[in-house]
Amino acid sequence: MCVSLLAMISGILVYGFSWCIQGDSNHDIAAKRADPLSTVVEVASSDAVDPRCDALVAALTAHELSIKCISWHQQDYCSPCLAKRRAKWTLLEDGKRYIDESGTWMVYASHALSAGESADHKLSYPQEFRAAVGPYMLTWSADDNAGIFTQRSYHFTVGCTVWRALGRCLDNDNQLEMRPLSELLRSAKTLEYLPPSVEEPWPGIRAESATVKIWNHIEARFDPLHQFAPRLIKRVRGHDNLVFEVMVVTQYQSVSGVDVPSVGVLGLYEPCPTGVSDTSITEEAKKDLQAATLFEGLPEAAHTADVALWLRRLCEGTPATKSATAACPLGSITKDGWLACPIVFIADNIIVNKPQTIDSILSFVPDDAKVFNDEAGAYESGVEAKQLLKARHSQLNKIKSESAKGFRHTEPSR
Questions:
Q1: pTM for the whole structure
Q2: In what helix (H) or strand (E) does residue 244 lie, and over which residues does it extend?
Q3: Which residues are CB-contacts of 361 (< 8 A; sequence separation ≥ 6)?
Q4: pLDDT digits (tens, 9 = 90+) for 156-190
Q5: Rounded Cα–Cα distance for residues 258 and 255 (Å)
Q6: By three-state DSSP, how is residue 105 classified?
Q7: Residue 315: what are its φ and ψ, rounded to 5°?
């Protein structure tokens, strides 16, 4: 099914490109080449939805279904911030991650923590582990060899990660289901086709009311050269069209025939009532944002023109279309504020469609760990806690609990 879908889309693209070459003017040729899905209208028509949107969702679905499970090593880097004595890019997190179609996931990472407000602002990197099976989660910290078994209310693979760059966990109030981006698009109130532009040269979709409970929109663009994997994802507030999150992929890695994001940039924004101007962003933040494009402290894998381009764009902020309110980089409009973005992720050792057993996932937790069982209200050993999570994993596999179906794809309701 996935192969046939991609073959169909590829055929459309080939037809579109060959048709472009027959145009009369260079301007027409350039415009048609920039919008490879422009000819889809001639292939299929629908009164309810722009057929180009349907074609993009179908191609995205094929890419999503090609990833049954994925594991990778990832490093996150936080941009310079004078207020936090970060003169250059700083390692924020370094760790291993895994997630599969059943909803089972694992994060074993070291996180940067401030060692105080000393002049050198030293950082420590304690090791932490989190694993979840459906709604059940087991955590462990190396500092005190202790953890907790509980029912989770969030998804630890959000943020600046490969998983987020693939369009997962965008629905903040419904993270336990991990609905894929294609499903959010299908369930949206309306879909609008976004043609490629000079700054964003990939076809895309704007989906209104695409998330549950919180009224947010999603704008996503997909790269035809990389199996229509998400290239750019924006989350937009529904009531004022304020862009509050931007995730852009700048580099992919082909793994077992599947294109997976390997370098990406995350921008987070806050409302700036005065708009984006010389007075909106503090002088301290301006220096921080300038320093970000120097790449100091950032691994060479991210020293690319695309990363520099998007760092500049994300640092500029994004004005809203129907309001005087604008979006400024988080922390950039408050004196001595903590500049929280941009953040860059770099992924390697990516493995696709090689499932990990529950035993291998839980191997990071020592048998002699002290784990508090939130359900029983008592402490247990690491062995007992791991056995408990294994039992939950077995139960969920047997009953096919809806909460454990991480990769759910439904047919369009239109």
A1: 0.82
A2: strand 243-255
A3: 98, 104, 106, 131
A4: 556 789 988 999 878 765 656 678 899 989 988 89
A5: 5
A6: strand
A7: -75, -20
